[in-house]
Structures are given as C-alpha cells and as structure tokens.
Here is the input.
Amino acid sequence: MENKSGAILCVILAMAIVLQVRPGLAQILPHIPEVFPPGSPIDIVKCSSSLFNVQGCVQEIYNSIFSGQFANIEAACCKIFSAIDTKCWPRMFPLNPFFPPLLKNNCERIATTPSSTHK
Here is the structure.
C-alpha cells in the first residue's frame, strides 16, 4: 500500500510541476540529473510545450489521468496530443505508461466523430 500511495504522490507532484511550467520558463527550472538530464535528447519541456498552446488542454489531460474519463478532452487538445512524438510519452508520463496510448486511441475516435456530436 505504501508503494501505491508513493506512486500516486509522485504522479500528483509531476502533474503539478507540468501545470506550473510554461514554455518560456524552462531555463529557470533546475535540471535534476536523475530525472531530466541536461542535454537529454528528449526534453520534457519541449515535449509538453505544445500542450500549453491550447487553452485548458493540460488541465483536461490532468483530469483524465485521475478520473480515467476521456469525454471532456476537446478535439483541439487531442490534435496537439496526437502530434507529440511517442518518444516523449515516457518522459511526460513516467508513472503511467498506459495512459498515452489510451488517450491517443480516444483522440482518434474524437477525430472521426462529427464535431456536432462531440462537446
């Protein structure tokens, strides 16, 4: 049980950091070598920065992670998420490797659904 609560705490902390990071602020964040090595070919800020271009997208994804519901993710957010390189996913969601493929599958369904039937 301690491992599960520790994992949940880490996910909450990671998402809180992602929600607070804006693309222009990456240079002020300290690099933590064990988690985000400097010069890493896959930089989490670069990977997630496009999500900040769509208002509310990060919050929609955050809500989906914790609720397991994908119905509130808008088509614009799905479009941005689907364009993110799959190599970024392990950096963006290190504690939940199953979430990105689930979200992508849901986004594919949203893309094929006429916009009048989706929120």
Residues 61 and 73 are 7 Å apart (CA to CA). The longest helix spans residues 2-20. Confidence is low (pLDDT under 50) at residues 21-34. The two ends are 38 Å apart (CA to CA).
